Ferric oxidoreductase domain-containing protein
Amino acid sequence: MRFIVALVLSFALVWACAKPLKKYPVPFYLAAIALVALYCWGTSVGVRGDAWSLFQPLMQRCALAFLLFSIVMFVGVLGEKSALRTRLMPIRRQLSILACIFAVGHIVFYGASYIPRISSAFTGNLAFSLGLAALITALMTVLCVTSFQIVKHGMSAAAWKRVQRLAYPFYLLIYVHLALLLMPSALAGNQVAVISIVVYSVIVGAYAVLRVAKALADRSGAPAPSELELETTAA
């Protein structure tokens, strides 16, 4: 259920709020920060209720951040002339920043859980998971900072593009990290965890296929399959 909610919220933000997000991004950033603060407060005091049961997993499991990151990544594999690319490309930077803000809730929750046990945490699979989380956080920080115009303008175009290529390993590592978090519950038969892994796998798998297809199309000079499908649908 939370994935449906996250999906609806993400696309509502992208589609309905595209123009105001492009023109006035700061209020959206402040609203995202407020939601993260609400999540942190609610978790600390043990808030309960139906609304909270829908909201809390979106933040704690990084579902909303992951879907926003996915939208950002999928924009890059859409055909150059596609209507979706035209709609989404102008707000790609803003969506990246929003995704990073929402991811902070996930980082704070698990950081608070594991930092007190840091002296005994670095063993086996837990050590790998914590190391991976630290790497993802470092990559996210770099990508987030360089998404701000003031930082981008202070870099050369070549340097900025090299940094932005880190988005590919970053996105893949997010998937690995989430899968590792969910796998124990999935193996224990938790239906929500199983569905979550399937959804994440389908999204990342679809992106990988479209990314390869676009790369091959760019080399050959032919339109990518995604572009052909969009143009056919529009017709």
Residues 2-234 form one domain. The longest helix spans residues 191-220. The chain has one domain: 2-234. DSSP finds 14 helices and no strands in the chain.
